Amino acid sequence: MADVEALWKKLQGAANCKSLLKKHLTPDLFTKLKGLKTKFGGTLADCIRSGCENPDSGVGIYACDPDGYTVFAPVLDAVIKDYHKVDKLNHPTPNFGKEKITFPNLDPSGEMIVSTRVRVGRSHDSYGFPPVITKEDRVNMEKITVAALSTLEGPLKGTYYPLTGMSKEVQKQLTDDHFLFNDSDRFLKAASGYDDWPTGRGIFHTPDKKFLVWVNEEDHLRLISMQQGGDLKEVYLRLVSAIETMEKKLSFAKRDGLGYLTFCPSNLGTTLRASVHIKIPKLAATPEFKEFCDKLNIQARGIHGEHTESVGGVYDISNKRRLGLSEFDAIMEMKNGVEAVIKKEKELSGK
Ligand SMILES: Nc1ncnc2c1ncn2[C@@H]1O[C@H](COP(=O)(O)OP(=O)(O)OP(=O)(O)O)[C@@H](O)[C@H]1O
């Protein structure tokens, strides 16, 4: 209890903090929630530690485990509604809309889009999230995930490479090439995301690295499809095929109204982030860039992941909304946003 009180005091003292945690964890709610525990043993302190220690957090709260979304719903629901801009938590049942994906390459000339990537997160429903799991849990989860992955066939057939024992050079190269994660996000670190690093973590990928799975990074699983250029249709359909196959092999955490559950509430619902790395030096230099993206429900990031800077006018543009819409709608929102970005960049370049 001393822990949660100290964290609360820190949050209260952070005058410039603009996180959703600070906005929605009222003194009343704090009093109501501070002594509760989930069935995985998770506490409010486990959820808010990162946001209290990093007052510059945008969201500031993680779920300690799948049950945290129920036990700490009074604060998490408010944060979720605010982040995803929804009034109600009535996420629809999954709908990938495979038969409706007929659009052509988003950048047939290949001049602007460097690469396209779509990812989803999935959580084992019988394990907690990083703040409440042990080293043994991580190893067990790795085992069941890898066993399921090893049954994939055809274009999804690949090999699992554990982080333990992987040389620093190989790790760096894979990370620089945008395939692998690292342990450098201070928000995730404060949320126990890197405890027992690198035990239980690894990457599965096909020989061509077009389908990859991150094991025990931020989420228990991240399924990723990516390739050079702007063929979003090919990238998305490959991912859907992988999701449908993995669903049959593992049991994932879901909640009515919230969709698939992930460690960070910003990811739940579809858990889908579809992005392009795209050269937009002109548009990005305009003062209205952020507003332009906001209006289209898209988000711009640097090209080495969230909280990084752009390099040479190349930005990561992705759908911002993941909850309250279907996977198909999330993909269409990203596609329409990217098309608008391309049009604007061309206009500004006089093309
Ligand atoms: N369209 C893309 N093409 C190539 N690499 C990409 C693309 N989008 C993202 N990446 C790479 O994927 C890695 C992970 O990025 P990042 O952490 O921003 O997103 P994420 O995996 O979707 O997770 P989160 O949103 O939780 O941070 C980074 O190396 C990033 O450069």
Automatic annotation (TrEMBL):
Transmembrane segments: none annotated. ATP binds at residues 115-119, 178, 222, 273-277, 301-306. One of its GO terms (molecular function) is arginine kinase activity. GO terms for cellular component: extracellular space. Residues 112-348 form the Phosphagen kinase C-terminal domain. The keyword Nuclease does not apply. Residues 3-85 form the Phosphagen kinase N-terminal domain. InterPro entries: ATP-guanido_PTrfase, ATP-guanido_PTrfase_AS, ATP-guanido_PTrfase_cat, ATP-guanido_PTrfase_N, ATP-guanido_PTrfase_N_sf, Gln_synth/guanido_kin_cat_dom. SUPFAM superfamilies: Glutamine synthetase/guanido kinase, Guanido kinase N-terminal domain. Keywords: ATP-binding, Kinase, Nucleotide-binding, Transferase. The keyword Transferase applies. GO terms for biological process: phosphocreatine biosynthetic process. Belongs to the ATP:guanido phosphotransferase family. This is Arginine kinase.
